[in-house]
Each structure stands twice: as structure tokens, then as C-alpha cells.
Amino acid sequence: MDAIHRIPANAWENGYDCDGVKEQYDVAQTVHTMEKTKQSFRLVVKRYFRQHQIDAFDGNYGYWIIATNIPNDKKNAQEIILFHQQRGEMEKMIGELKHHYNLDHLPCGQFSANSVYFTIGILAHTITQLLKKHFFGNEWEKKSIRSLRYYWLHVPAKIIFHSRYVIAKVAMVRDLFEQLLTAYLRICAFVPSS
Fold first, then answer.
1. pTM above 0.85?
2. Which residues is 166 bridged to in the sheet?
């Protein structure tokens, strides 16, 4: 924290996302060495303003720090932040595959059966990602399959047959139901290109 506090105020720059849109954080960097070594490395610091909780030692800011040996001419501080965020997204995806698609273990000792099992899991994940990207809307794009199951699939419903109609009575919040209905209608109206 001493190294971070020694960064001059004019060294902090606004952060941005991978599309170049300004974000709600600042970026700076400094050089740091450990106590008993002569080798130095870069500390890239992402600083964000704490809106709700102020830390007694660090004040109004929270920090996210990356120690790297990537030279400054290869990646600047902002590029380092984006690079590590992409790595974090990949780790999140691997965790979702392992825990939410049950791919953390293989069911048997036969290679071909395990291959089919793993392929079905990857296919289910890919289809879910395509549905989220193209049909569910922007607010669902980053949600996990666990959230989708919680909001859309684990919903109490009752099927009623009345006057040659099939009616599904669903107990869910109106906004979520409208989102689900919109996604359903988008999927029904989709015409694949040939």
C-alpha cells in the first residue's frame, strides 16, 4: 500500500472497457521490489471509489493490483487490466462448466462414453451461451446457468385444460415473466438462414 500511496495524483488515468467505453475506475502503475531482492516488477493498480463502505486504513478507494513482468512497451497499464479481466472470465467459465454442468468428473472408465458425456455438456453450455447472446437480452448475457435455472426454470406453475385451450399459470414476478415471454417469442420467430 505504501507503493500505491506514492503514485502521484497526476499519474492516474481513467479506465475503459475493451470497447473503449469509459469505466468507473482509474489506472496507474509503479515499479516495486520485494524487501531482500534486487529484481523489480511492475505493479498495475486499478483504483475504484467506494460508494457505500469507507475503509478506515485506505479511505475512499479500493484497489485491485496486478504484479507483472510484461514490459511496458508490450502492454500498457490499461491493456494489462483488460488482459487479466479476460483471464478471469475464462476461469469463471471453466468453473461454471465444472460445477453447474457437472463436468468436474467423468461418469465411467470408458473413453468413448466419457467423450460423449463431455461433448453433451459442452454442447449444452454452447447452446445456453447462444440463447443468452441472441434471444435473452443484454441483462442476461453475463448470468450463469444457475441464475437462469433459478429465475426461469424453478418456477411453480400449473397447467389447466379449459375449452380446448392449454393454459399455463406461472407464479413469478411480472417483469421476469415479460422477459421470459419476450425471449420465448424471439426464439419462436427466429428463422435460420440457409
1. no
2. 161
Amino acid at residue number 153: L
CA–CA separation, 179 vs 155, rounded Å?
14
Using alpha carbons only, give the angle 171, 169, 187 rounded to the nearest 5 degrees: 95
3-state SS assignment for residue 60:
coil
Per-residue pLDDT of the chain (194 residues; tens, 9 = 90+): 788 888 888 888 888 888 888 888 899 888 887 878 778 888 888 988 877 666 666 577 888 888 888 888 898 888 888 888 888 788 888 889 999 999 998 889 899 999 999 999 999 999 999 988 888 888 888 888 888 888 878 888 899 998 999 998 888 888 888 888 888 898 889 887 76
Is 27:12 a contact under the CB 8 Å cutoff?
A: yes
Give the helix ranges, DSSP H, for 103-170.
111-131, 145-148
Residue 138 CA, chain-centre distance (Å), reads 13
Side-chain-side CA neighbours of 14 within 13 Å: the count stands at 7
Domain residue extents for the chain: 2-82, 87-143, 150-189
